[in-house]
Write a structure and sequence with these properties.
With about 100 residues, the protein is α+β, with helices and mostly antiparallel strands. About 30% of the residues lie in helices and about 15% in strands. It has three helices and two strands; from the N terminus they run αααββ. The radius of gyration is 21 Å and the shape is elongated. It comes from Araneus ventricosus.
Length: about 100
Amino acid sequence: MGKAADLSEFDRGQIVMARRLGTSITETALLWAQEHRDWTMDAWKRVSWSDESRFLIHHVDGRVRVHRLPDEQLLLSCTAGHTQAVGGSIMLRGTFSWAALGP
């Protein structure tokens, strides 16, 4: 996962639930899967799945990205400036279920 500020509400919820159960997120996911492995097709048809992803437009997340060949040093052609506190991001969310796709 990442820094606390980078975690989605869902990721934070997973961590809190795992801590309450006294297990890791992996163990919590395994428990959930074991509890639901015998669900019928009708039960799964009532589930709505969702996901979200954040895309940075100008990579202003504080991470340094250097692209150069092994023989190159800090040549001006291999370095890039940075934008501070500007740039923005796009958050995409989507859902799907048996019946339909969501926004």
